[in-house]
Write the structure tokens for this entry.
Amino acid sequence: MIKGFLQKLLAFEKFLEKNEELDSEYKVVLLQIAVPTRSDVPEYRKLASQVHELVARVNGRFGTLKATPILHLDQTVDFDSLCALYAITDVALITSLRDGMNLVSYEYVACQESNKGVLILSEFAGAAQSLGAGAIIVNPWDIVEVADAIKRALDMPTEEREKNHRHNYELVSRHTAQDWAENYVCDLHNATSKAPLPAIHTAVLPIGEAAAQYGQSNNRLLILGFNATLTGQIQFVEGRTDIELKLNPELKQPLKTLCDNENTTVVVVSGYGRSILDENFADYKLWLAAENGMFLRQPGEEWITMRYEQEEISWAGSVKKVFEYFTQRTPRSNFEQRETSLVWNYKYADVQFGRNQATDLLQHLGAYSLSNQSSVIVQGSRSIEVRPTGVTKGKAVDEIIRELDLRNTMATPIDYVLCIGHFLAKDEDIYTLPSFDVQPGAKRKGKGCQAEDCSSVKFDLNPKNYFSCTVGREHSVAQYNLEGTNEVVSLLQDLAAAAAPGSMS
């Protein structure tokens, strides 16, 4: 049942009904191989009977003495013969109603190097997430859609067929089972050796101790998140496609004091765009990283673009359509389109309905095969973001430290780091900034550095003068947590007091 045989046959019948004139142009034959597996099960026998009846009906309606539209085989075909059939087939029609990976689609692509056939693939097959960019994705329950897809596949220009096949063939050739196994073992090793397990309950940040260490240090680095860290209360406005973020008024003075301190470097890292950060921090002497590090701005200078090319966000149009669709159908949700990313937010929607809609939205994104493109899907607790691959807040901080080194602004080693924010799991590499085996005067070994361009900024860090803290999150790799923005206000006020003239700093 889950292979969608009946739906496939009904769609083929609809195709023949809508395209009877094709008979004079070329013959179209559907070859269906149904390998007997569970003939002892009553439901299976009933399904087989329905399939046979439908095959007979279609052949009776559209067959002639010279041609039969459907060839249905209730038998096993040896692998060599199957590969030969794959190789000469012009269109592969896979209409699974529920499926796992679906190896047939991969086998078909592998055998089509000469013919460059077209793959019509059910959106419910796992392969749709990887092969979808080079296939025609269909909903097998929509008979008309599948019928139209068959016509489109048969009429597809040679150039488009070759382009789609080249895309999928390259993916199948490169991502072998051996390659998958090696990558999996490598990722597993890296995860267990480099990253601690997320803490279920982190300790509350000792604000007094953090302020005292700040006052005793000579060169401080403060890394601050923006949303849900430095912002005030956000009010949802029905119908708006953006959220107005404003710096918490209680933080304006302490933040300015910290930014003006010559021994303190302040960095604000955000997923939001440049315009929002400019509106809030134009009067502050600090570093800004917008859109998770795609854009950086040094105090008093213009924004610089790190690696943004228009081709890198060619997926944005398709993603926007999906986000618009679900925003219209999910009350109190909204989506934001930024320069290099899109975010769908359902924080203010009904909890259960929002989660259900988010699950459906992810399936729709999978149908667009974003995994094939230069993008990654990032899930938050109540949001879904699509951004370019390789973009994280941790890498943004790496780049800022490298820029500090190039500008020779670090006269003494950094001996105090506070990294605090409401960061998504994808961005928690920002907490892996220091390596505590770094001795005074040694080079930094940041997670995002490469051997040829690693920053020579010096660190003098130990567990006593490095504080990583999450805000409002229960699961985090950070050492500490604060409940919300009120506690952040208290923290920065204490730091500002320690930085003020006449303090112990």
Summary: The first strand starts at residue 30 and ends at 33. The chain has three domains: 5-174, 201-237+245-307+402-499, 310-388. Residues 208 and 463 are 16 Å apart (CA to CA). The domain at 310-388 is CATH 3.30.70 (Alpha-Beta Plaits).
